Amino acid sequence: MKPLTLTTERLRLRPPASADTEDIFAACQDPDIQRWTTVPSPYERRHAEDYIGRLAPEGWLHDTEYTFAVEPRGGGPVIGAVALHHPRSGTWEIGFWTAKEHRGRGYTAETVTALSRWAFTEAGVDRVEWRAEVGNAGSRAVAEKAGFVVEGVLRAGLFNKGTLRDCWIGALLPSDVGLPSAHPYLPAQAVRAADTARASSEAGNGSAQAPDVPARP
User: Fold this and answer.
1) DSSP letter at 175?
2) Residue 113 CB: number of other CB atoms within 10 A?
3) How far is CA 119 from the centre of its chain?
4) 46, 99, 60, 58: CA torsion to nearest 10
5) What confidence score (pLDDT) does residue 89 get?
6) Cα–Cα distances in Å, from 127 out to 48, 101, 148, 160, 198?
7) Rg, Å, the chain Cα set
8) For the packed helices 107-122 and 137-145, what is the interaxial angle rounded to 10 degrees?
């Protein structure tokens, strides 16, 4: 896919550029970003250069990961990053970080909401997953604010810094934000309701029939 730009009320999401190197390098010095996300630790300038010059462009080229730098809509420094990647067949997963000094203003939830809606309306995605190591309360708060439903805990579900870790998993569906899905969706509760209704109908029909009476010898 050709790289593109998305805009929200306050933000612009665009492909990372070489001019973002210092902003990204500085933001990723934050211990919390290195602790909870999969960025390298320690994070060196060469990591920012590789992210901008190789990883992000290759993801767009091969349709495996759509990476955006996030900046104020009116211009300014990079305040975060967000990506939609395709790690497993049939699923797309969202990941994000926000520079420490820009947290607490709703920017991250606004970013996640915008990218998820684009995924549903333009990329034909039926389900966007979110994963975070258990304990990453900030990431979970963002996901829930953006409408994601936390579905449970995956044991050893996240590989980070050479170690498997338990993670929360959540998902956002098109129907959660009032959008149509690319494919029909039949929730389990709807299946159970249909099965119950069918069983009740069959029981009612059976009770209305005359009982079998054995013939006299």
Assistant:
1) G
2) 19
3) 10
4) 10
5) 67
6) 29, 31, 10, 23, 30
7) 24
8) 50
